[in-house]
């Protein structure tokens, strides 16, 4: 998936104007997009031109998937079990047992949901979840609560009545609800926005906003996509990581002892270590403040590229193996593109260039950087036309090497990928 494909995927789901307002102007929009907006096509964007058929096909995969969580109509008594009743659909079983069936991590079962997941991962360099819920009529969710991540709730069938806290909110950190941290109090009832979300519509629930939901009279099927947009804090941490690669001062030992009050260290020694650490922090802060290179858009792009690269290479491998005969069939004129749902990022410096992909990296001399950047940013290319100073044989060898790793694959006349076996 190229950056352009990721952008197009998200725009099909939420629309370009809403995307801007969501990520840069939170708290100033109706959380449910109007029926005239692109959000009414959200179910189609996630399931394709025939959502009913897509759900039917997914049920077979979900049965093989095995476990699901079962919640009572009041949203409590969660339990994990395996689906046994093969004679009824999930929606029918949900109604018959008066329980909500919850399936975790369903992106791999729905290709278009997986595309949205990959697009958000590429955009924010952070984990994305996708869960599916079958609820019987008038079943309630797990009580009034808030999440520490943003949620896109897309209604795939039936309807759901939501109440969501509106307006601006102090957004929680990931560790907000850990023991010892105070929970945010729920707002006054007058601050809730009440909306009925019908099939095809999308509801956006910002992190930290209290919410609760109840299925409509015909029950409900909806998918919840959870993600965390990159915050200023995330960017500052990425900047410090980047500077640590350049300046050894940022990598010096920060603390030499625990708090003197703990009794673990000699009090005089501990006090000296703390004083030394404070001086070192002060020097690093002064270095950051006095940088000769300003923290402008170019530096931020470099910083966030490095953050995205680290995140992508830490993702689980995509479990694809390339057939060697298909790899060797790649020549200078063979149409090639990134593998299905593959995301990648390129970093380069004076020492070399690296392409980062889920589960691994491939590095080489800095001369390969233009070719690598072309590969990750173009949906279709031929090895012989790759930019840069590489010779024809080197270009082909580079692409074949990436094909063996499942990063790229041949493209057939219909636009499908050839030579990848899951």
Tell me what the structure shows:
Strand 14 and strand 15 form a beta hairpin. Helix 1 (3-14) crosses helix 6. The strands form 4 sheets. Strands 1, 2, 3, 4, 5, 6, 7 and 8 form an 8-stranded antiparallel beta sheet that branches. It contains 12 helices and 16 strands. The chain is α+β, with helices and mostly antiparallel strands. It folds into 3 domains: 3-227, Cupin (Jelly Rolls, Sandwich); 232-295, no CATH class; 313-421, Outer Surface Protein A, domain 3, CATH 3.90.930.
| CATH 2nd-level architecture of the largest domain | Sandwich
Provide the low-confidence segments as ranges. Answer: 26-30, 32-39
Query: Tally the helices: what do you get?
Result: 12
Would you tell me which CATH topology of the largest domain applies?
Jelly Rolls
Question: Cα distance, first to last residue?
Answer: 18 Å
The biggest beta sheet reads: 8 strands, antiparallel
Share of residues in helices = 25-40%
Provide mean pLDDT, rounded: 79
What is the C-alpha radius of gyration, as a whole number of Å?
A: 25 Å
Got a strand count?
Answer: 16
Structural class determined from secondary elements: alpha+beta
The top level CATH class name of the largest domain: Mainly Beta
Name given to the CATH homologous superfamily of the largest domain: Cupin
User: Per DSSP, what share of the residues sits in E-state strands of 2 or more residues?
Assistant: 15-25%
Describe the global form.
flat
Total domain count = 3
Secondary-structure element series: HHHHEEHEHEEEEEHHHEHEEEEHHEEE
């Amino acid at each position: 998936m190229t950056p352009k494909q990721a952008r197009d995927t998200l725009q099909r789901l939420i629309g370009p104007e809403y995307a801007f307002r969501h990520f840069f102007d939170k708290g100033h929009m109706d959380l449910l997009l109007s029926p005239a907006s692109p959000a009414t096509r959200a179910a189609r964007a996630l399931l394709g031109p025939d959502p009913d058929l897509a759900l039917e096909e997914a049920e077979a995969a979900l049965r093989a998937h095995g476990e699901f969580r079962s919640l009572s109509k009041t949203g409590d008594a969660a339990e994990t079990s395996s689906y046994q009743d093969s004679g009824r659909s999930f929606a029918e079983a949900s109604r018959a047992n008066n329980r909500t069936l919850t399936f975790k991590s369903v992106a791999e079962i729905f290709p278009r949901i997986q595309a949205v997941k990959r697009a958000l991962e590429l955009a924010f360099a952070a984990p994305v979840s996708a869960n599916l819920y079958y609820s019987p009529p008038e079943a309630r969710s797990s009580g009034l609560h808030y999440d520490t991540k943003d949620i896109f709730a897309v209604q795939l069938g039936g309807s759901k009545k939501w109440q969501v806290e509106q307006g601006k909110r102090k957004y929680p950190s990931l560790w907000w609800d850990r023991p010892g941290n105070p929970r945010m109090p729920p707002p006054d009832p007058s601050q809730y926005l009440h909306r009925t979300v019908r099939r095809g519509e999308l509801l956006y629930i910002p992190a930290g906003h209290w919410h609760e939901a109840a299925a409509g009279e015909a029950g409900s099927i909806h998918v919840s996509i959870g993600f965390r947009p990159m915050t200023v804090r995330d960017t500052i941490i990425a900047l410090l990581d980047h500077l640590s690669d350049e300046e050894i001062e940022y990598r010096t030992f920060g603390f030499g002892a625990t708090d003197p009050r703990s009794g673990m260290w000699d009090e005089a020694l501990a006090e000296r270590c703390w004083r030394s650490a404070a001086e070192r922090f002060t020097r690093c802060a002064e270095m950051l403040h006095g940088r000769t290179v300003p923290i402008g858009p170019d530096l931020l792009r470099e910083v966030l590229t490095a953050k995205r690269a680290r995140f992508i290479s830490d993702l689980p491998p995509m479990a694809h193996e390339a057939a060697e005969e298909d790899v060797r069939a790649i020549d200078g004129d063979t149409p090639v593109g990134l593998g299905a749902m593959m995301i990648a990022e390129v970093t380069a410096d004076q020492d070399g260039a690296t392409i980062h992909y889920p589960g691994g990296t491939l590095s080489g001399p800095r001369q390969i950087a233009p070719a690598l950047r072309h590969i990750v940013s173009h949906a279709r290319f031929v090895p012989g036309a790759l930019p840069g100073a590489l010779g024809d044989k080197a270009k082909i060898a580079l692409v074949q090497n990436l094909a063996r790793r499942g990063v790229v694959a041949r493209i057939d006349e219909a636009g499908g990928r050839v030579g990848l076996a899951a």
